[in-house]
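Quick illustration, no need to memorize.
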Amino acid sequence: MAPTRHLMSKENFDKIAAVEKAIKEKYGEDTIANPRSNWDEQKEKEYLEQMKQLYSRDNKKRIHTEKVDVDGIKVSKKLLNRESLKNCPVCSAFPKSVKDDVSLIKYECCNKCFIQYVHGREDRWIQGWRPDET
């Protein structure tokens, strides 16, 4: 019990009061005020409503940007909607696999065309080169 008495001694209270006074003089009354002293039910309601809005926005954003790992490539889950994908513009094949989906999203061609025309030559592909239609 001796340590508890030591912590609650008059000397410690005097040190705490001196530090608090110095902080008040340097930074103002608000810095030492108890945060609950200016809080009421209306502020609590406003705070809770703001938190609901924040969590709602964060949840929508997280769902919108959720990524799926496809063979080491992170792809937005919303982009893997097969209804929005079209045939490969290079060979006209319909996407059959997730690899095709990823290649169509990233390089605008199926995975077969990616391997044949793009892999190792990404810069040329990004600059607009495409194989002849024949």
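Helices lie at 2-7, 10-27, 41-65, 98-107, 111-118, 122-126.
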